[in-house]
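Page 42, continued from yesterday. The earlier attempt failed because a stray header line got pasted into the input along with the sequence. Redoing it now with the clean sequence only.
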Amino acid sequence: MSTNILTIKGLEKSFGDALVLKGVDLDVTEGEVVSIIGSSGSGKTTLLRCVNLLETFQGGTISIAGQPIGYTGEGAGRKLVSERQRARQRSMTGMAFQQFNLFPHLTARGNVTLGLLKTLRKPRDEANAIAEQWLDRVGMLPHADKHPSQLSGGQQQRVAIARAVAMRPKLMLFDEVTSALDPELVGEVLGVMKNLASDGMTMLLVTHEMRFAYEVSNRVVFMNKGVIGEMGNPREMFHAPKTERLAEFLRNSSFLPS
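This time it went through. C-alpha cells are written below.
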C-alpha cells in the first residue's frame, strides 16, 4: 500500500483581496513524481511555497508524512505555529528555486555542508563526506572547491539541488528550476532530476518542460485560475485532454508527444 508523503486538503491562499488558490486537494505518494503545469498566474508556484511554508495560507490543511504543518487548531481556533516549529517542519521538504540562491562567499562544498552542519548538527567530517557524495551524484565533485561566480548557471543549479537533497528530505520541491538557464544548460539539470526520480525520490515540481512532465511524471496536475483543472496520467492528459482549457494550453506549448 502506498504511503502519502504529502496531503493537501481544501488549500486556500489569498494575496490581499485576490484569492490565488481556491480549495486545492492533492496527494503525493512515496516515490511518486508529480509535475504541475499551467499558465503564468495559475497558482503553481504559490502552491509549492505553501507546502514549504514560505507562504502562509488562509484555509485548508497541508500534511507531510501524516503531520499537519503550519497551523494548529481549526476555524476560529486556527493558529500559526512558531517560526522555530515552522523551520523544523520545513526541514521535511527540500526546495530548488528558479534562482539558485547559493551563498556567493561559500564554495560548492561549503554550500552543501552548511545545512548539514547548522541544521542537522552533523560532524564536519561526516558533512563533508555527504556533500561529496551528492556533488558526485550531480556531476559537480570536480568543482567542489569553486565559488558560484566560477560556475555556469547549470552548474550552480546542480549544486543547489545537491544542497537540498543532501538534507534527506521526505519530499523534494522544484520550482521552474530550468527557467533561468540558457537552453543548452537545461538538459544537464533535467538529467539530474531524472536520475533522482529513477532512484525513487518523492518529487513535486512546477515545470514548463513539457517533455520532462510527459516522460518522467507519474501524474501531471494542470492548474487553471487557482484550481486543479485536470489531473492524471501524463499520456492520457497529453493525448486526450478532457477540458478545452488544457487542450488549448498544450497546443500553445512547443512539445508534441509521439
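Notes: The chain has nine helices and twelve strands.
Reminder to self: strip header lines before submitting.
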